[in-house]
Amino acid sequence: MDVAVSPNGKRLLRALFVLVVVFLYAPIAILVLFSFNNSVLPTFPLSGFTLGWYRQFIHDSDLRGALETSALVAVLSSIGAVVLGTLASLALARRRFHGKAAASALLLSPLVIPYLVFGIALLLLFHTFGVQRSVLTVVIGHIVISLPYTILVLVPRLQQIGVDLEEAAYDLGAGPFSTFRLIVFPLILPAVVSAFLIALTTSFDEYAVASFVVGTRITFPIYLYAALRFPSRLPEVIAVAVVVITVSLLVVIGAEIGRRRVERRIGALDPV
Amino acid sequence: MARGEGRLTDIGARRRRRARRALTTPGLLGLPVAWLAVFFLVPIGIVAAYSIDALAIFPGKHPITLDGWRELLHSGIYLGLFWKSVKMSLIVSAIVVLLAYPLAYYLALSGTKRKYVLLLILIAPFLTSYLLRVLAWKVILGSQGVVNSFLFWTGLRSPDHPIEQLLYSRFAVMLVLAYIWLPFVALPIFVSLENLDMRLLEAASDLGATRWQAFLRVTLPLSAPGAAAAFLFIFIPTVGEFVTPSLVGGTSGYMYGNQISDLFGTGFPDWRTGSVLALFLLAVIASFTLVFSRFTRTSQVVG
Fold it and tell me: B157 and B245 share a domain?
């Protein structure tokens, strides 16, 4: 007998699951549908098939500029967050020290601040010290909000692989840097990649903080928010939406499959 | 004996050698902690300084004053708006957790094949663009949108009388927020159910408990911390939300976060009041988090 759920209960839960998945994906499907619709207004009945909106956004230089800025911000802030996150995770997972609870609370605290409040706080910081708002100020903010996510991914992985191999490396005369490069880094690489991708998608999608600290070179979400206010640009934005959502879904699913595969292979080598 | 001692000192030497070779703890922690101190703690301190006029938009001599805080406590407008946002956010969080719980239960405990694939399907929308998912609902709910035009087309409703309350309403804000956060909360609940020791349920069943009794007395208490964490994960971002209400909320969906962002906008900036409101929000969320973490920790000890 199945102790958790009866056959009827399972059927009911499955039906609920299917309903929720439909609820989650139907709006995305509707965007896809209207991105090919030959009308400025997204209304029924559909009026005809067109690729015009996609053509229009490919030639939109403002949009391309915003996408490039966002890509730059995302890559820079993800590198920053992963580097800082790796350092912090090594300390949290491998060291015993006074004030560890306080340190980990501080490192994770950006998780529990509303981005609105953090955006305002950064704005006031830069204003007070006369720092010009630019791509760099957005990168600074995004490193702060991505950092806790990288730690949440990296610490469990470090705990999982254990310290035996590192200690063996030290005993065999390796220094801290070569131990990290040759032993630890290859073992945590899948988690590093996950952390990097999480930071990348977080930054690429981040509006609230960026809206307060962005300079003249705007990021993609800022562009999108502005465009959402002009109905005439809606179809073009919908076409962009379809491309961005498709690409991000592919990246997420591809990364997850890749991580599983690599961790399984490394898992076979683990000395556990 | 001598041999044993030799081995002991050997281990001691080894440990010392390791300690010398490994990077120091401050070397590892220094940079990340400094980053958060400068770009996270100091900015919050500056907000506090603005909230009491120790700093101001227009530099000059200002006496330090608690007027901003007094205003907040005495003006019904800000507190009323705050209470409205808290209510909206609590309702959204509750609905989403109640909806996500059975889904996570289904994936974790019903012995479904490929549960991780199904979990990924459930979570994947969360990892796509936030603004674009709001956009989808704008397209669906607008007075000329998908729902209304579909109703006109099928003749269920005349084009002169579209359902106006769909978009730009409190309902729209709550629907969109629930839509956005639903995939995200399934994860912590799934993890807590996945870690559940199935032998406990088997024992309950052997001792004559029905599935409902086992659920209420074993599964639910043990997964409550996960559900509480999920609740908190939605409450924090939604109570300070300003993007979704500004896109689909209209005037009736205007939230506390909109008020704050407007005070820092280009129209009539009032950074002192804005700082007070922002810090108040932060204080409420911090106390919420503390209460919740205490709650989850005690239940973990009990578990």
Answer: yes
Residue B130 CA, chain-centre distance (Å), reads 14
Tokens of B214: 């086992």
- Say yes or no for a CB contact (<8 Å) between A91 and B240: no
CATH number at residue B78: 1.10.3720.10
Has residue B281 been placed in a domain?
yes
Whether this model's ipTM surpasses 0.95 comes out as: no
Burial of A152 by CB count in 10 Å (0-12 exposed, 13-18 middle, 19+ buried)?
A: middle
Q: 3-class DSSP state for residue A104?
A: helix
Q: How far apart are CA B49 and CA B64, in angstroms?
A: 9
Into how many domains does chain B fold? 2
- Nearest chain A residue (CA) to B242: A116
- What's this model's pTM, rounded to 2 decimal places? 0.86
Q: List residues bridging with A96 in a β-sheet.
A: none
Distance CA B90, CA B88 (A): 6
Cα–Cα distance measured from residue B145 to residue B167, given in angstroms and rounded to the nearest whole number: 9
Q: Tell me if B65 is assigned to some domain.
A: no
C-alpha–C-alpha distance, residues B142 and B165, integer Å: 9
% residues pLDDT > 70 (chain B) = 88
Residues of B in contact with A113 (CB under 8 A): 236, 282, 285
Rounded Cα gap, residues B113 and A209, in angstroms: 40
Partner A contacted by B32 (CB < 8 A): yes
Q: How far apart are the first and last CA of chain A?
A: 34
Residue pLDDT, tens place only, B198-234: 888 888 888 888 888 888 888 888 888 888 888 988 9
Note whether residue B227 is domain-resident.
Answer: yes
Minimal Cα–Cα distance from A269 to chain B, Å? Answer: 23
| Closest C-alpha to A119, from A208, A31, A14 | A208
Both B94 and B170 in one domain: the answer is yes
Q: Is residue B56 part of a domain?
A: no
Domain containing residue B217: 72-302
In this structure, the answer to whether residues B142 and B22 fall within a common structural domain is no
- What is the set of domains in chain A, with CATH numbers? 61-269 (1.10.3720.10)
Query: Residue B94: what are its φ and ψ, rounded to 5°?
Result: -65, -45
| Cα dihedral: B249, B251, B256, B260 (round 10) | 100
* DSSP assignment letter at A46: P
Beta-bridged to residue A37, according to DSSP, are A49
